[in-house]
From TrEMBL:
InterPro entries: Rieske_2Fe-2S (IPR017941), Rieske_2Fe-2S_sf (IPR036922). This is 3-phenylpropionate/trans-cinnamate dioxygenase ferredoxin subunit. The keyword RNA-binding does not apply. Residues 4-100 form the Rieske domain. PANTHER family: 3-PHENYLPROPIONATE_CINNAMIC ACID DIOXYGENASE FERREDOXIN SUBUNIT, FERREDOXIN-RELATED. Keywords: 2Fe-2S, Dioxygenase, Iron, Iron-sulfur, Metal-binding, Oxidoreductase. One of its GO terms (molecular function) is oxidoreductase activity, acting on paired donors, with incorporation or reduction of molecular oxygen. Pfam families: Rieske.
Length: 109
């Protein structure tokens, strides 16, 4: 599989998460305060909650339901109750296009 357009860079709001779905794979895409774009699995590993409905804090995304924050770099939860990581996807930019290959997860652990 190849990288596909997830959204436009100009569609992203700094420090907010946007839910996208590529080939049925839900992802939370975040433009952080350093201008870096991240993509992690959108489903919290503690419950069936969309992480993109949560809160960006630095380079983490916090689930609104019970407060586990997931690293945007490693996918690991930084605090309980979640203890399993979410996948992290490689993001490439091509002009205004944010490209993600849903079949490639970064080995960051
Ligand atoms: S559902 Fe996300 S922390 Fe509980």
């Amino acid at each position: 599989m190849t990288a596909q357009r997830a959204c436009g860079l100009s569609d992203l709001v700094q420090d907010e998460a946007r839910r996208v779905e590529i080939d049925g794979v839900p992802m939370a895409v975040v433009l952080d305060s350093n201008g870096e774009v991240h993509a992690i699995g959108d489903t919290c590993t503690h419950g069936d909650i969309s992480l993109s409905e949560g809160f960006v804090d630095g380079d983490s995304l916090e689930c609104w339901a019970h407060g586990s924050a997931f690293s945007l770099r490693t996918g690991k939860p930084l605090n309980l109750p979640a203890y399993e990581p979410v996948p992290v996807y490689a993001v490439t930019l091509d002009g205004d296009d944010v490209l993600i290959d849903p079949s490639v997860t970064l080995d960051v652990n």
